[in-house]
Structures are given as structure tokens and as C-alpha cells.
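To start, an entry.
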Amino acid sequence: MSFIKISTVFFLAFFLLGHAHAAGSPVNEDFTLVRSLCDDMAEMAKKRDKDAFLELADTALKLSEAIRRDNSMAIDRFRPKLRAAKKAGKTGDFNAATTLVEEAKTLMKPATASWDGGS
């Protein structure tokens, strides 16, 4: 994982976060950059590249923390999985790390809001 790619991800994340939403608007839950980092994490886990995996995990966690300002409940669901994947990667358990990354990716899908009409 090159420094240029990580720098680009951070730049894009902060650029996208700069667009504020008016009060009452729906929360923008676009985790495209975090999902991309998770894809790269899974690839590094398959290659058993511990350093690259941990670097990507740190980047994904920092990026999701930056996005957290939008008070997204989805972030609170997938961040513990990413932290657990990082911990598994530190110990060298790449099978568990890959499983946790995949679970985190499924939690990043936008949840449908149900509205009962207020009755």
C-alpha cells in the first residue's frame, strides 16, 4: 500500500466530509472509501502481509471516525468489527481477520428506514 494511495483516500474523505447537510436532511451514509479499504484489507490478509493489513486497518478506522461526525448508527455497528479485525491481524490470525472484515462490509450497507405513518 503506497503512501500516495492513502493520502488520496484521506484527501477525498475530507473533501467529501466538507459538504454539510441541512438540519433535518437524511444522513449521508456513503461508505465507499471505507469499503474500498476493507477490500484492500481482505486482499492483504489473503497475502498474509501483516504490515500492510495493519496500515489499512488504521486508515479505515481513522476514516470512519472522521465520518462519524454525521452521527451514523451504521458506523457504530461496523467499527467494532474493524477493530477486532485489526486485533486479529496483529496476532496473525488472518482467517478471523478476513471474516471480520467481510462482516463489517455487510454492516456498511444502508439500512432501510421503515415509517409507519405515525399512527
Notes: The two ends are 52 Å apart (CA to CA). The CA atoms of residues 8 and 102 lie 23 Å apart. Confidence is low (pLDDT under 50) at residues 20-26. The first helix runs from residue 3 to 17.
